[in-house]
Amino acid sequence: MEVITIGNHKGGTGKTATSLHIGAVFGLIGYKTLLIDLDPQGFLTRMMGVDTNSVVDTSLRLFDVDTSLAQLETVPLPSFHLLPSSEGMRTREKKLTSTIDLFLVKEALRGQDIYDVIILDTAAALSSYVLNALVAADTLMIPVTPELQSVHGAEQTWQSARAVQGRLNPGLKRLMFLLTNVHGRKKVHRQYANYMRKEHGRLVMDTVVRTCASVAVECHGGKTVFDNNMNSRGAKDYSAVVDELIRNEVVPVFETKMDSEG
Q1: Spans of all domains in the chain
Q2: Which of 3, 209, 25, 199 shows the shortest CA–CA distance to 115?
Q3: Which residues contact 125 (CB under 8 A, 6 or more apart)?
Q4: What is the architecture of the domain spanning 2-252?
Q5: pLDDT tens digit string along 249-261?
């Protein structure tokens, strides 16, 4: 099982769209995949059209002591399962005050072999929920739009992750940046993309996710870009992101549906 946390302290970077679509790709090619919405605002949950009043469990349950993922009922969707957010997360965070509380998600996921890949979608902030996601992670992916504020937020996130890696989670093996919402004709995008590659080198993924209207327009009511057009720019780019993760052995490598069909 590989736990991948998706995060950036700055909003508007395609963070939730990235969580959703790499999760969808993993599921489509045969990985048992779970997405966990750790954002109190629940953007991922709403994009999937999930009514939290009609589900048995939400991600809030992960913050109950001695809770195990195996005890929780997740929401089955076409290519992955979802553990949705809930409004109760807004008030619960005030009670997460000790260092021990930062390990609750990690403990809940420990030793679980139900899923091959678990993706943690986080809020655009440094909160107890985000710290829990960093402590639980094997890999951190930081989506970053090549613009000033997004780059600044990404570098702050990277610094936070390095601190967590050194003090709380030595098992955080990989930190990586993913360039998102990239418009190749914008001079400022080219400049900041070049800056990221110069400053952070191999930490920046080779794949970039280009600006794609369908990602914003089509992702609602439980649908992803793959449900409408497998050949769209967004579908191709997020498939390439997962291909790169598999090539670099970020996730366990085994024969996927894509391999068997090829």
Answers
A1: 2-252
A2: 3
A3: 9
A4: 3-Layer(aba) Sandwich (3.40)
A5: 998 876 655 554 5
